[in-house]
Write a structure and sequence with these properties.
Layout lengths: L10 H17 L3 E5 L5 E4 L1 H7 L3 H4 L13 H12 L4 E10 L3 E13 L5 E10 L1 H19 L3 E6 L4 E4 L1 H7 L3 H4 L13 H12 L4 E9 L5 E12 L5 E10 L1 H35 L8 H20 L5 E2 H8 L11 E4 L4 E2 L1 H20 L9 E9 L2 E9 L12 H14 L2 E5 L6 E7 L13
Parallel strand pairs: 12-14
Antiparallel strand pairs: 1-2, 1-5, 3-4, 4-5, 6-7, 6-10, 8-9, 9-10, 11-13, 14-15, 15-17, 16-17
Helix pairs in contact: 9-10, 10-11, 10-12, 11-12, 12-13
Amino acid sequence: MHGKTGASVTPSALDDSAAYLAAIVASSADAILGKTSAGLIRSWNAACERLFGRTADEMIGQSVSELIPPELWEEEKAILARVAAGEPIENHETVWLARAERPIEVSIVFSPIRDSAGTVIGISSIIRDISQKKKAERGAAMLAAIVTSTSDGVVSKTLDGIVTSWNQSAIRILGYSEQEMLNQSIRRIIPPERQAEEDRILAAVVSGEIIDNFETVRIRKDGALIDVSVTVSPVRDPAGRVIGASKIVRDITDKRRTQQQLRDLLAEVNHRSKNLLSLVQAIARQMTRQGKQLDLDRFLERLQAIASNQDLLIKNDWRFILLSDLVRAQLRTFGDTVGDRIMIAGPHVELTPEAAQSLGMAVHELTTNAAKYGALSNGEGRIDVGWTRDGDTFAMHWIESGGPQVSPPERTGFGSRVISDMVKISLEGTVEVLFPSSGLSWQVSCPLERITCSGRDAQR
């Protein structure tokens, strides 16, 4: 028969209940300690010993402050006061100290302990080690910060290609906002002719492969095509199953542009090297025509004139040479007389490499002739070098005065052909060479477009 309802609980039943509760506390995986409202430890279970490395004999009767860093004592006092007033506090995250002052990150539930009259006579603390959890959280926060701040676009997607995350750099590179791309297909940014790439990438990711630095093309929101390098990695769940993919997108437009510029530059260097070799061969042939012995010194001087032009061309990235720089380079031997006996004047003109080659050789031959026979062969001669632009026409002159009397040469040599025929043919212009008694006069006129770089300086 059952006992009567409301029958009193026997002392033995109370003892059994207390023993059962004590057994639960003793065997709990969480550290549980009891303390007075003043903070003196009254109980200390086995999990406390494992967590803090201190035995019950060491800790019972001691102040809980021994487990707390000094800078957190005031926080503990405030908590004790609140719980002593009957307020439970749940999941308070803080730091306590194990043996040897080793800090442990913990989460604590504080509960008031009451007697039969409801008076708070102590406090229980259930303490859980959250060090690994906090470490994982910090790691996740660090990864999130890296993803947020990286200059590369970082995107995650499902195995169906549906976008699940889209960072700030993805917004910058591809133009779509996070709201526009979340839950949308990644195929939105893939050109129609490259859709098969996505099928191959997803198939590789499902099999656990990593696609590393795959260079391709994607579509920006504004419709522009951009060159990108893509790295795609599988995303796995805790069981190791592939559940999605992460994609790192790097804009390589500048890299591709630089590579193309380098290819163009190498092609230009190759082209110009062949032209230079042809020019050197032509000079050698002209200087040895009709069985004439090569004048090595004169040959080397002409090669040096070509080299001076090349130095100026390289200085300007193989694009142009300033006419004023070219003239001064060929007259460098007489640089101390420029502004005194040699006058150089003319507007800003950027010569094409081809025009610079012809005019540079002509100025070199004129300088050499002036030094040997003309205005620079004595101490009184003067040279006026100048050029003008008049609409679409370019004109340049070299006029000598004050030197020895001159007369037309008895025969036409290589130098004469350079200042006349070569300039006339290469610039599609007219050349006039006169030999008045006062000194040589050389003048050239040609279309401006034959000497300038794509008409740039014609517009200045």
